[in-house]
Queue: 4 jobs
Job 1
Amino acid sequence: MKGFRTWHGLLLMGLFGLFFLFYQGLWGDPTALPTVIIAEPAPEIIAPSLYGEKQMVLSEHRGKVVVLNFWASWCQECKLEHKFLLAIQKRFEDNPNFVMYGVNYQDKDNLAKAYLDQHGNNFEHIVDLKGKISIDYGVYGVPETFVIDQEGVIRHKIIGPVLGDTFSDLVQNKIEPLLNQSAPLS
Amino acid sequence: MNLRSLLILLFVMTSSFLGVSSLFAQTEPLPPALSMDEDLLQQKTKEISRTLRCAVCQSESIWESNATLAIQMRDIIRERLIAGENADEIRAYFVSRYGDYIVFKPRFRGINMLLWGGPFILLLIGGIFLSRALRRWTTQKVEDAPEPLAPIDEKQRERIEAELRSFK
Amino acid sequence: MMIEIGHFAVVTALVLSFVGIVTPLIGLKTRDATWVVVGRRAMISMFVLITIGMAAMFYGYLTEDYSVKYIYATSNSKLPIFYKIAGLWGGHEGSLLLWAWILALYSMLATLIHWKSQPVVMPYLILIESIVLCGFLLLILFLSNPFERIFPVPADGKDLNPLLQDPAMVVHPPLLYLGYVGLSVPFSFAMAALFSGRLGEEWVKATQRWTVFAWLCLSCGILMGGYWAYYELGWGGYWGWDPVENAAFMPWLVATAFLHSTMVQEKRKMFKVWNLFLIILAFSLSLIGTFLVRSGILSSVHSFAADPGRGVFILGFVIFMLMLSFGTLMIRSAKLKSTVRMESMVSRESAFLFNNLFFLVALATVFVGTLYPLLMEVMELQKVSVGAPYYNAVFMPVALGLVFLMGVGPYIPWRKSKPENMKKLLTVPLLVALTSTILFFILGVRKPYALAGLAVVFFVLTAIVIDFNKVSTFFAKREKVNKAQGFVSAFKGNPRRITGIIIHLGVLVMVVGIIFSSMYQAEKILIMKPGEEVNIKSFRFRMANLYGVKGVNWGGQEALFDVYQDGKIITQMRPQKRFYTVSQTPTTETAIYQLRMGHLFVTIPEVAPDGTWARVRILHNPLVLWVWYGGGIMAIGAFMNIFRRDRRRSVPVADSKGVIPEVSPNVAQPTR
């Protein structure tokens, strides 16, 4: 082409690159947050129980599958998932290798207790003092649910409420397989 | 340049010094002593938290944000500072929990070098290109004569300067 | 009913925008000016119709018509009347309508003002402006319609976001849009020059004031936004390098580069293609900015609700405009013979080139920094954040380089400068810069960046003072008056140059403000109970009380601070934590005490539920007001530039008495 110069080519490349970037970017979600702590050893937790009976020490549960659920009384989505959490506890409570804890996040004890009174409760809860636990686990908001295996390694993280498909996936494909491989450990 | 303009300059300068000198009543923070004092602790917390993104906010740092998570993160920075960790260690801790997303300052490595070096490389390339083009243009013989009516040329400029000198 | 009339008016405007596209084309094809006259009428009618649309929305706001979805979302019956009107630009749909209105206003004014003087440009101007307007009207009517109704009709509105209930926020968006959209006038002239092949200096001269006006509005809009963020968001800073702030800053950078390089084209007939490229880039960046802000593609404090449909449409429109303009530039420029007549490496021309280089590198920094996280995400590499620490490290050196050039560029002669001239030019400023650095070091400024910044500021200031002294001396001598009057004569002789340098002075003031308020800011965040005290620099803050307060549409707490310096009470400050009841949003109200052009700044971002303690953020921001004083000086300079009176060439260059040092008589610009 006559009169075609290098800068024309560069400019066109730049423009098309930009258009491509913008178009691709439209389908992404800028608010989606990365998860980095999967497959890492679970940070140690030493925290008071919500009802003040005893301290919870995570390492004491080594050899068990631990489910941690971060929640708060002011969180709307937590209310939606609450009955599913109760169902998880109900389903596995007879298994000695399973334990579930609720982690009460950025909340007040009295409000949290009132919430549990209202919505029912069948598992233990600990208090996340000054956000130490949630920051250690890279929590962005509530609800978030972690599954820790018998070796104390974080295996799964679920952002958002556990209900419907997420619930059955969590129970059947995440917790149960872990519990089933726990037999040889004893 | 005559005496008077120098005086004016001096006046401008001294008055601005007077204006700002009062701001330096306190000197820079001292190097860390055995136990960190409160001011230094605040200062360091500020420096570190300004480089960390408040994960639940949009694009604020945890220093600027008033979200609970940001407040808690600031407290953790403070505690870790008291425990003796340095800025990089503290940042590394947050990166290990939240990923690279949490730092406002992408690390100097891999593809990020492009981000950090890019503008300076561009400046360098542009500068080289520009000076070469300039040299080419200046040595190039221009066929048609330059504009007859330039606003001011060297000769006139010299005369002006001469006039100015005579004025002094 | 009024709303429907407004809606109908805007639909008609859309139809007319097609008329505005088609008629100039027919006119150009048939060489019949009647078609262009039709286009002009369409342009004027579009403005009237969109004004009716705006009026209908205002009527809806004032009569509290919450059956209109957008009014419902951005207003409330308890809102003061001032903010009811400003509600129109409190959200996505209404602000787009304002955008379109401003575009129609500019198009109409440009058509009317240049109708006689630039007849050749008119068909292209009408064509280009109609295309842009058409794109925005399509977006408004089909993808973000502010006239849409809802049923059932809500009893009351959801309220305007309390953060926007602020005087600065009332004027910030219109100013910003006046800036963004104002660039469309020089852009259209540039496109007209490209299409018609009249690539001389005419389009540059005709649009110079338009560009300065757009630049002025953009600058003020950005500064106003900064001031708003400063006291409303309550973190004590005015610039956060947020993607949306960057989106407004990028066109500003290019517009500034353009304003400088067009001077070369006017004086020396050089850089023709370059100037076309710059103005196309500037307007493209304001379109890209619109895309970035409104598609929700970036994570930002300001972004509007994301909607991929809108994003795709705006992107399509941006692609169309960019390909049209850059494509035409490429095709046309290939035919342009290069007419560079550079005589020396050391000349004002080359100083302008370096100015442009620095501006474009500054742009690249902001551009890359803004889009880098997006790029990483699209390439599925990692999720990263780019924020203030990056810009401080990379942008600031470039900015410092630009400030330095302000002390050199305007004082190098055109065409050619001899080395000894350069020496003369630079010696005194460099000496002053060096002396000031040493003095500041002795005074206790130890941060390298602050020292470098101050040295550069003094370098430029000296250069300006020397130059002003020189010209006023010359005129004083020539007209046998005193120096002050000599300066006035110099100003009259070349107002454009002097106003430009006034803007430079404003930049210096701002730079000093930025250096001190960012590097010598003292800040503390702590929890305080009534009766407790804290020291910050030489000030002592005592929280005297913490109590409840109530406003019209909000309730909250207020803290009372006694501020002491040297044991004496200097003021009382009352920051608030508010909770707006209708929108259920908390805000922090800042208490500011002005002190030697700096600020003491107190907020209480958090108050204990039982009211026993508050989290307190206390700052001392030295010289922070200089940032806005500098902005004010820049605005004054730009204003004087727009309304200057250029002398026709009253002093023939050949006349020995008529030579003006450094102030080359402006080639007379036909007054409109």
Note: The CA atoms of residues 262 and 275 of chain C lie 6 Å apart.
Job 2
Amino acid sequence: MSGSSSQGRLGALADRWLPKLVLSPTLAASLIFVYGFIAWTGWLSFTESRLMPRYEWAGVVQYQALFENERWWTAAANLGIFGGLFILFCLLVGLLMAVLLDQKIRAEGALRTVYLYPMALSFVVTGTAWKWMLNPDMGLQKVVVDLGFTDFTFDWLVNPDMAIYTVVIAGVWQSSGFVMALFLAGLRGIDDSIIKAAQVDGASLPTIYRRILIPSLRPVFFSVLLILSHIAIKSFDLVMALTGGGPGNSSDVPAIFMYQFAFTRGQLGVGAASAMMMLFTIVAVLVPLMYMETRSAKRV
Amino acid sequence: MFKNLTVGRALVYAALLLMAIYYLLPLYVMLTTSFKSLDDIREGNMLALPQAWQGGAWGKAWATACTGVECNGMQGFFWNSIKMTLPAVAISTLLGAVNGYVVSMWRFRGSDALFTMLLVGCFIPFQVVLLPMAQLLGYLGLANTTAGLVLVHVVYGTAFTTLFFRNFYITVPDELVKAARIDGAGFWTIFFRILLPISGPIFVVCIIWQFTQIWNDFLFGVVFASGESQPITVALNNLVNTSTGVKEYNVDMAAAIIAALPTLFVYMVAGRYFVRGLTAGAVKG
């Protein structure tokens, strides 16, 4: 009797401490590798670190250097162009495909598989494939020229004014199927009786989608925006593989800027400052979106 | 309804097929290009089938193509990626499972706040941790090693895996665990006897997600590994963007497919779970 009860007490004691003990390595890792490292990078961005890290406070010199760097502003503008168009087209293409696939389509499973497989690929692979297809000598341009349109040119990949748009093309190809999957899951989650009632009232199918179904996808819409803007701000591998940031620096993005200044040009301070700017951008975009998402989720 | 409008339905199918072609085209072009000879590529049309199917580019991509100074093809880097991905996936998934179990079933004062604190790790741009991480790996003697990359992927992957398991375990009825506790079952007994047996699907989802993420990673690979310890994504990028010599598009494409094969295979075999993982990670992530 007493043996089993003391065992029980011991067990209860273990059960009080075990959960905390189990969680603690991950928490410690998070404290060091996420919070500590952000603080460390933040500190570096206020020093005069160049090739080697230095830890004496130097004020905002690196941010000044960053903001006076034309290349940084090219990268920031490109992020705006790429991010905006990437999100817009992913939303449009993804929503359109979801609505079309929702029409009791035969072979829906096969089509979904086809739309989604790019998501399994690395951005480097995607970039490599599109780099080949978009190259002006032997790629799509030649295909169209061979068809008889001899004046056709499509040289975006090597055209400094247009190179960033090739990143949009490849990015949308890679990610729009995923957006489709999310919207389709949302559409399938809507109660059928709402649609039936609207049909009884004589509403046409397009009206039902425009007025009832698509508006009720609001929470999904916010999730999608959240993920897409996250992908856009972090985008690095796709640009590296597709254009390498070129021609020149014309398709540079902040992630490449950060990588090159911090790791190949030996300008740690500027690299750290640009990394902090990326963090601020993510916070500035994601926090309002998350706030709106939780609000709209509560309302539904 | 559309059922009677055959024209409408035909249009829907036409649009869907057109989209399917758009998605399949790059894969088709990659495959056919990889089997063409260089002359065939230069003279022929990108969309045409090879005049003569040749496997030479594949052999070269695997064994002799140059990825910088070295000219040993993708083979070594392929194994690097395997040696990096398997342990990183295993460790981060197991950690995620027990963490998810704690934050869903054994909540204590402050555990929700701690979980939120962990989740922040899913959202940060990794650029913000690269410089300190490079320093730390240097101190630990792990710079340019596969072990270092495993550490990095485990550290930054565990937030996601914890989220996956937590979202799965909160759907398990509390009564199950409460009843077991009254019967005297402890922390580990409940985990191994009650939760693990029903965790199959979430393990599959989580493993697939982690495998895809880690195999496809480029940023950590390019920053923390160099030369012989590089993962395959970095090697592929080096191979494609080496500016010396004749551009061998057939070799590039074969190498790209080699780099993509493992994740494509997983997608083909377990696509259902793959989608579920994406949506699960998305809904809360």
Note: Residues 1-5 of chain A have pLDDT under 50 and may be disordered.
Job 3
Amino acid sequence: MLRAIGKKDRDIFDEVWPDKRKIVLKLLRQDTVSQREWQDLFFGVHFVCLWDEKGAAKIYDCLQQDIVEFIVHAQSQVQAQRGEQALLATYIVEWRKFFTQSNYLPLPFRQLEQSPQVKPASSSSASGASTSASTSNAASCSNQAATRSSSVNPAASSSAASPSGASTSAASATASTSATASTSAAAAAAASNTASSSSKKNPTEDSPVRKLMLDSWNKHIFHDIKHRLQDSAMKIVHAERNGDAYDAQLVVGVRESYVNLSSNAEDKLEIYRENFEMAYLKATAEFYRLKSTEQQQQNGVLAYMKYADAKLREEEVRAKRYLEPSSFSILTYTLVKVLIVDHLNSIIAECPALIRDYETERLNLMFRLMDRVLHGVGVEAMMGDLQRHIMSAGLADMLSASDIITQDSEKYVERLLELFNKFSDLVRNAFNDDPRFLTARDIAFKTVVNDTSVFKMELPTSIANRGVKFTAPESKCPELLANYCDMLLRRTPLSKRLTSEQIDARLRDVLLVLKYVNNKDVFMRYHKVHLTRRLILGTSADSEKEEDIVEWLREVGMPADYVNRLARMFQDIKVSEDLNTQFRTSISRHDAINIKILNAGAWARCSERVSVSLPIELEDYIPDVEEFYKKKHSGRKLQWYHHMSNGTITFVNNFGRYDLDVTTFQMAVLFAWNQRQHDKISYENLRLATELPDPELRRTLWSLVAFPKIKKQILLMEPSAIGSPKDFTENTLFYINQEFAIVKNGKSQRRGKLNLIGRLQLSTERSQQEDNQSIVQLRILRTQEAIIKIMKVRKRMNNAALQGELIDILKNMFLPSKKMIKEQLEWLIEHKYMRRDDDDINMFIYVA
Amino acid sequence: MKVTIKSWTGVATWRWIANDENCGICRMSFESTCPECALPGDDCPLVWGVCSHCFHMHCIVKWLNLQPLNKQCPMCRQSWKFNIH
């Protein structure tokens, strides 16, 4: 340790230091140090530094020697202990003593930092500590000398100090020398800045002496026995896990020593992390690797889930005692790996059965466990199980009840909702309404709702003039939903039975189901048809509710132009009411006349008008109404839609007096008998009298001879055995049923009211197929429109992107099939609205 | 037997009475709307000039606004005056 030093210098150091050194040793041993001695030490350090050029370095070297000696002594004390607990206890005692001193001892040596020679001293301490591979003092000294001879600055110290673990010592030694050579002044300033800012808390924290003390401890004692220490600590933790008695303080003490031992200001937890934490993780993983397999084999997977959950919590609590907060996440990761990920498949295998049995509690437990797994592998598997279950259970349920629900829209919707609520409850209780599971549920619901195996409507896929027609089956769900809506909104036994709130709730339910329907355009079509009937016949149960639902439809994202049209219909009805009031005041005798003037664009398209010869009473009113309207709105003329108009007639015979709600066509037919009550009139003559087209007349007559669910029909025919309106011939005779009466509970009533309108006919004779065709026609136009809309903005677009945007635009109306999109693209290309790119067949270009 | 009418609800739609099929400005059918509107009917009315020519109101107003000095009917070049019946 001795080096060639100038004689004069040597004198001062040698004169002063031996005395002071005694005080240092006392301090280290934690012997009592008097106030005077304490002050002497300050003076001594100051004095040597002041008068001896290399005094600081010399003090430093000497100090190091003393510290090392003390540590070696402590080490022998600790290693003398045989038992685990005793070893830990002794170590902790020694360490606490030493650590306390590390807060005091540096104080007198602050001078070392301030004298011009301080910096080299401080840096040399760092490099000395880091080269812990060199165990002999001589080697360490030569290293210090070498470092000091080159002009070193603080940057070197900080860069050298960072990897101070024993294993990386070789690398850090090279790092320190390279940093020494290359550090610039700027870097040095920056490094000293960070050092000063980090040392605000404790003035001794970054002192070279303290650093020296900690590093030496690390090198001489800790390095040798850390494995024994860790093993002992882990044994205690193990014992605790097994439920044996233990002294938790020992583990905590060891951990504290690891944390405080670090002299690296930038990463204080380095030593802790690389040793204690790693050992803890390893021990934990090993413990549970054995335990988990054992548990699962003994108690089965379901019990194991409980075990895993309990242990995860337990270990989290334990970690709070034994680990630094920074380790929590990695510990959890390790635990999840051992307790869950390693058993993932066997746990997941239980999922379908649990879902089937609605074991919400266990599912919830499983979900909580799986949710801890990174990347959601487990959760995804559970989602898949849930989705498959809802789909198969839902479809099975629908199929088993197919007899009832295909006929009865109320039963269908209620059944569907029951199913939805059941699964929504499951998702809520078992999966806490986790968005991922809600999505899985929604996908499954969609499949159930749009499934065509229970019932379907056939839609032609191509337009008629394109040759062979194929039909694409679609779920009838939207139609049934619209029917159910109608039952709730119309005055029906159902809507009378329910309170306003109940109806609201059910309408909301309908919208909920509607959300899952792919082809909303079918719903809109039927809803509008029903609404038209309700408005024309005035059969709405509650007009406020009618308008509410229009707004709700807007809220759930129905296309704006569709919703606006519905709103317009209400407006027309209101305007018509005003007109009626004005009309009645203008001409007093028209009390019985009501007119409904509709906006052609907003109401259901009904291009054809049906001619009919009206009863004379009505015939007289028509010009009055037209005249009145012309005065109100110049430049407009009325077009009558008699197939929609209707009225109430009073029918009097020998039995009584009855009010009958009838269509205008029925009215026209019945009035044919007004002048010749007892005659039998042939079909041909009725046609001449009413001027109705053949199909309308047949239908109207049929509704009068065979109205469903009434005992006595108003008209009778000859021959009476005719099965359908198609079988009427020109010579079929019809006559008034003189015995007609309204029958209630088996008794003929003298008075009463009867509705013979049934379903108001909105269009002229048109088959269901033609109706469906118009849906398809509209879809084709919508698709073309949407394609052009997109291409107009994008100009150039590839096929995949175009389809994506197209579906996005159309999804609130219907889900366009690939085939239809392709056909419409071809059509648009053929008609020069767009073209394909010459080089890329999948690229479309808009042609203005 | 006797049948009498107690009440009757007549349903009708209305059409414009125009002397032409299409609007002379936008060339759209009078039964549909001007290019700016979505729903035909009250929201996109027709107007008549004293010269008896008829346009979508939106179309003729736009046209008149574009004429700096003489507000003329685009069909017959007579000065435009709204015909208020």
Note: The first strand of chain B starts at residue 2 and ends at 16.
Job 4
Amino acid sequence: MDFLSILLDILLSAAFWTAVLRIATPYVLGTLGELVCERAGVLNLGIEGIMTLGAMAGWMAVYQGADLWTGVLVAAACGALLGLLHAALTVPLGLSQHVTGIGVTLLGTSLSYFVYRLVLPQASTPPTVEPFQPLALPGALAQTPLTYLAFLLVVAVAYVLYRTPVGLAVRMVGENPAAAEAQGLNVTAIRIGAVVAGSALMALAGAFLTLSAFNAFFFNMVNGRGWICIALVVFASWRPGKALLGALLFAVFDALQLRLQQASGGVLPYQLFLMMPYLLSILALVLVARRASYPRALMIPYRKGER
Amino acid sequence: MKGGPEVVLRLAGISKRFGPLLANDNISLTLRAGEVLALLGENGAGKTTLMNILFGHYVADEGSIEAFGRPLPPGSPRAALEAGIGMVHQHFTLADNLSVLDNIAVGTESLWRWRSDRGAARRRLLDLSQRFGLEVRPDALVGDLSVGERQRVEILKALYRDARILILDEPTAVLTPQESAGLFETLRRLTADGLAVVFISHKMNEVFAASDTVAVLRAGKLVATHATASTDRARLAELMVGRSVKPPAPAPLSPGEPVLELSGVTVASGHGRPLLDGVDLTVRRHQVVGIAGVSGNGQTALAELVSGLIRPDSGRLSLKGSVVEHGDPADMVRRGVARIPEDRHSAGLVGAMSVWENLIAERYHDSSFSRFGVLRRGAARTYARKVIEEFDVRCPGPDARTQLLSGGNMQKLILGRTLAHGPDLILASQPTRGLDIGAVSYVHSRLLDARAAGAGVLLISEDLDEILALADCVTVAYHGRLTPLLPHDRVSVSQLGLLMAGHWDILRDILPETVDAA
């Protein structure tokens, strides 16, 4: 079989598209979360740690006997708390968003491992829970509820940002906080709110990994997905619809490389295939993001009354 | 004004201190419905601070504000908006990436509604726009608008919120003369509707064009309040500056040897017409050469050339008789060129750094300011104190951050940096743009002092009055070319205007002996 027919076989199989939607889900959620933070003018590099904490906390709640949806809520609440920490340091105190974000990632990741080991000191094989089951729908539509939730949230975030007063306020503080303040808005409160909400979304991405895609928590399971989300936000020019598109595109590359790896039968080193989605993302970023109009006040702390 | 319209705003005993600087000192003002009050004062007199206190950006240390008979809570723009006060900031507070309608409507609805009522917002905006003759396109991105249009958006923003008192901070600083006239027309329509307007200005002609009452601030104090009709320019200028202002009077001096010579200098632009096209120019000691011209006719390239930022593509540049082969900015400084850049904020000073750091920026590597690669901070500070004293820079001290200084004081700082070392050539690009009367006359007298001390001055300015007052010789830039030098007493403003528009045929009348030069 030549390469093209292999590719065609893959692209026409329902299993491939099922995998694409599944792989895309954490990217969709994480990118939406980052997008909400950045629209308000706050870069949140804590995303990797917040996703890890969401993954651990959601799983741990279910492992301790809570039902799956309670686990999801616990994850979101933990993400919101870490987001509050990031917001407290970057918004009223105006600390460097880069440094704070990396600190939050380190804290979120280590805290997750620490709590996990505290509760399960001896586990050599990670214990499992009963995860979300795919809905009984045909073909690629057979997804777990969290995937459907992620796609609904794209619409919801887009609606809030573009059709409600609070969304306009969020965009305004990300573009020009001085203008927002002159219109009587509380810049600090709006930025903190956006970071907290965005971080809760990121934590959902983590919870999807342990409660839907897999059924256990293990170290390094987030594996750089947060950083990909940061790039996807730029790729999406800070728009929810394009964020969905970017996440799907990345998932297509990822699902494709797995299958091509198997089909190649060891002719090419598998690392080449692993690289593919990242290389293609960089390429897409270069092509799309050069003209991106970023929120003007992104990464600029706002201090009231400063001349 | 006894028994006139109701008093809508009353400031009582406002004082505000920034560190050691007393920005507002016990200021009391009243404003009546339908009145236009001009707040006149030099840069740094405290006008903007006062209005920022009124609008809640700052909190006053002392004093109280009453709007429409009710006390205004301090430090809250929201409270000011609710009390009917709107402010148009000098640096517009608009978000470029959002539409006009979004910029105006943000914050006017309760945040927690499920849906913005954009239809109603649009109707209200268009209604206001029509009522006050302020044309806008609601769906245009603010970033695509001209400066005049942005200002209309700012005014509409205030009106949209039912402002009855409108504060405008230096509203004409960014407008063309035609746009300014339009603005004053708008102000008349607003006051006819019963609004009260405060506008901040340091330009005398605006005060007379637009205001009913004028309040003069000087060094944080309210020095006088007059009905505009009952006063005159000279009196206001004196109140503003605190002394009478004399126009500069250059003493006649005979020019010395050349310090700057350009011969046949061409600078390509990369596309189309060259930036400079075969320019010949000589500047001598004891001489001010003025370059007049509409901006964009090669003045910037000429300034960059003399600063060492760009090099000629052909032709020759000599300083004090020696040809400069590979000039760079540091080399030009070493050769005795002092530079007053066109934009003091972006090219002149580093706002986030201190006064002393900025002062030694051109010569920090001198042995007087560093030894073995280590800065001599003590020596630098002592030097800074000397320059601050000598050039009358109003600032808390050598360690003050430069961005806290007013425009006039920033310019004095640049003058101090460049003139303190007895330069041979001074390149002054728009040296008084945006400065108030006091600072302008200070800059002029310093330039003339340097001329008397033996420097040559290359003065690039769009202000013809300035050029004719200072320059010994004038040349006009048009499409990258320069006219021959014209003695300042043989050319009139209207002739310069014609030359600036490209009518070089009149050179024949001004300079019969060099008829072939053009």
Note: Chain A has a mean pLDDT of 92.
